Amino acid sequence: MAFADQRGHWISAIFAALAALFIQIATNYANDYYDFVKGSDKAERLGPTRATAAGWVSPHAMKRAFIIVFALAALCGIYLFIRAGWPVLVIGVFSIAAGILYTGGPYPIGYHGLGDLFVFFFFGLVAVGGTYYVQTLHMNAPVILAGVAPGLFSTAILTVNNLRDIENDKHSGKRTLPVLLGSRMGRLEYVLCIIAAGLTPLFLILLTKTHYWTAMASLILIAAIPSIRLIYTQPPSKRYNNVLAATGQLLFGYSILFALGWLL
């Protein structure tokens, strides 16, 4: 979107991508560490193997790892702060804090049904809006709306993860939305996130009266049908890991199609 507005800035885009990547990695390391410390990663866990719980990495080493990687994200943020000022500092501080407090701290976000909201906000609105802002030093409504779809796809990924682990989370005291509202509402959340994300380009076309090629990103809804069918016909099991991966692919495919459509 920045390049379509003739205001793209490659160096800023690269540093934003690196900072986001480091925050993503560090957050997963932090989740690995804190879920182990809190006893959420039990032997019966259905998700991919966690390094600390499996004994591959010591808790001390995992804690050191997430601190180092968050520090790398902060280093990338220095250039972005110099270029774009205090908004970047605010985004960076809150992003790192959210990454740690998702499963850590006295009131972990992910343990109290708030994870979905934070994932939508940081992986959608902040990720897209922030990347655009550090390049253009400007913000507009279409960019914010464009961030809705990645945020919803990311929330759908989290929802599958929480649906798969619903029984384990109940026993460990992790109160995700599926635990609080039930698996039926969790499945509905997944479907609504996917559909709303897929329809976002159509709302943008109505808003801008241009960029009609972005409508091809909505075709990703067809690819979502097998995943939707599986979670509605199968109880939580390791098969949900396939839906997890497929939903990540939906997010990636959508992003590519949307970007190409916006540039055409």
Radius of gyration computed on alpha carbons: 19 Å
Number of domains: 2
| E-strand count | 0
Helix/strand-derived category reads: mainly alpha
The biggest sheet, with number of strands, parallel, antiparallel or mixed sense and barrel status, is: none
Number of helices: 12
Cα end-to-end separation: 11 Å
Helical fraction: over 70%
Strand-residue proportion: under 5%
Summarize model confidence as the mean pLDDT.
93
Order of helices and strands: HHHHHHHHHHHH
Which runs of at least 5 residues are low in confidence (pLDDT < 50)? Answer: none
Overview of the structural elements:
This protein folds into two domains: 1-139, no CATH class; 142-264. The protein contains twelve helices and no strands. The protein has helices at 10-37, 51-54, 59-84, 86-101, 115-136, 141-146, 148-164, 166-172, 177-181, 183-208, 220-233, 240-263. Helix 1 packs antiparallel against helix 3 (59-84), helix 1 (10-37) packs parallel to helix 4 and helix 5 packs antiparallel against helix 7. The mean pLDDT is 93.
Show the helix and strand layout.
Elements: H1 10-37, H2 51-54, H3 59-84, H4 86-101, H5 115-136, H6 141-146, H7 148-164, H8 166-172, H9 177-181, H10 183-208, H11 220-233, H12 240-263
